[in-house]
Amino acid sequence: MKIGLIGYGKMGKVIEKIAVSRGHEIIAKSTRTTPVEDIDFTNIDVAIEFTAPEMAVKHIKHCVNQQTPVVVGTTAWIEDLPKVKSYVQENNGALLHASNFSIGVNIFFAVNKLLARLMEDHMDSYDCTIAETHHTQKIDAPSGTAVSLANDILLENANLTSWLHEEEKTPEVQNDQLGVTSFRKKGVPGTHVVRYNSEIDTLEIKHTAHNRMGFALGAVLAAEWLHGKTGIYTMADVIQF
Hints:
By secondary structure, the chain is an alpha/beta fold. It has 2 domains: about 1-95 and about 215-240, Rossmann fold (3-Layer(aba) Sandwich); about 105-210, Dihydrodipicolinate Reductase, domain 2, CATH 3.30.360. About 35% of the residues lie in helices and about 25% in strands. Helix 1 packs across helix 6 (about 215-225) and helix 4 (about 105-120) runs parallel beside helix 5 (about 145-155). The two termini are about 25 Å apart.
């Protein structure tokens, strides 16, 4: 495939390395000094977008207008998802978005849902919390992955109806809430822990990323999967359990 990169920071460079190793060609790179409007999309098969929340919607619409499928790894723009979905559908575009492209994290998502269902009848004894730790350059808090984990728990466990977030400390919550805590530490690619704690014991599941390779590989796999399609997808469509 011929791939266009929208965003060429640390993640973009790792994506380029993996894409080339899989036989693909990077034919365009949009950076802060080279906006997408200056890129020739004529021969781009799929675009991969990792930029900033305030830029994501504009980039998605531009790709749709250019009839180019786009894989979006930027997070913290999901409040705009309903209008983005309408735009993609009305213009017969192709969008694959995810809070995390790592294969391991998406398995973690599935385990989190199962655990939430199993714990539903035992929440009178357990408190549920999520803790996420990332590098100090990460813009959004909580992470998109933590938000996905929290929202999935709410969907699967009727005892919990909302979540509350704090940075660097565990939030004080009501009985029907779960607490989400964000930590920022130098050099940490990403760690997420879902914990059920009681007076008797603690049950937890954890995912630790060692580097950006897993996220980048997942994004390239998503681009390979999206090529030639139209519609709106997530990594759950790519990885079917």
